[in-house]
Design brief:
Number of strands: 10
Largest sheet: 7 strands, antiparallel
Strand content: 25-35%
Helix content: 25-40%
Shape: elongated
Structural class: alpha+beta
Order of helices and strands: HHEEEEEEEEEE
Number of domains: 2
Number of helices: 2
């Protein structure tokens, strides 16, 4: 019976020269079965890479700001005397006009906490710093602040908080917000500095 089947297949394929349509269809089917999951794998990898890139960038920004704040002199951390929608009166003793121009001022506690603005002008005799853009909530005499140099712009929004810790330490928390896949996310770093 084996010989009958072998003979039948020999007759069936004996005059064939090339690849038939059926073989091509089978090969294309197997290629599709293999290719579709591979394409999906690469697309998923690209999405995860983009999300990781945002997370690394926000962590680097938070670390940079945290290190900057840890290294600033004590007269750049204080409690505001008062403020308006476009200014803040600093408690420091620096009287040099323009000293803090292009620095950042972050409201770290009290009224208006969480806002970060660029100082556009500083009048030393009155210790009034003009900011841009205007405050959403104007600072007052309960507002604590920190002034630091951060000249480059960033596509991320961030906030800085400074709270009294234990044993002559202040706790600094930098939170950076970003969007990944349309979802708002946040990265926070916390460090401690010696009270000055």
């Amino acid at each position: 019976m084996k010989k009958v089947y072998l003979g039948y297949f020999k007759k069936l394929y004996s005059g064939q020269r090339g690849v038939g349509l059926l073989e091509i269809m089978v090969v294309l089917f197997f290629l599709a079965v293999i290719t579709v999951p591979l394409i999906n794998f690469f697309l998923s990898g690209n999405r995860f890479t983009a999300e990781a890139r945002h997370e690394v960038a926000t962590l680097n920004l938070a670390q940079e700001i945290l290190e900057e704040i840890k290294s600033i002199p004590g007269n750049q951390i204080g409690v505001a005397l008062e403020g308006t929608t476009g200014t803040i009166t600093l408690a420091g003793t620096k009287t040099t006009n323009g000293l803090y121009n292009n620095y950042k001022v972050a409201l770290t506690g009290g009224t208006g906490s969480g806002q970060v603005r660029t100082i556009t002008g500083y009048t030393g005799s009155t210790r009034v710093a003009a900011v841009s853009p205007n405050w959403i909530i104007a600072p007052d005499s309960t507002t604590s602040y920190v002034i630091y140099q951060k000249n480059n712009s960033t596509p991320y929004t961030y906030s800085v908080s400074v709270t009294d810790g234990t044993n002559s330490l202040k706790t600094v928390t930098v939170s950076v917000d970003y969007k990944a896949k349309g979802i708002s996310k946040s990265v926070s770093l916390t460090g401690e500095i010696i009270k000055r």
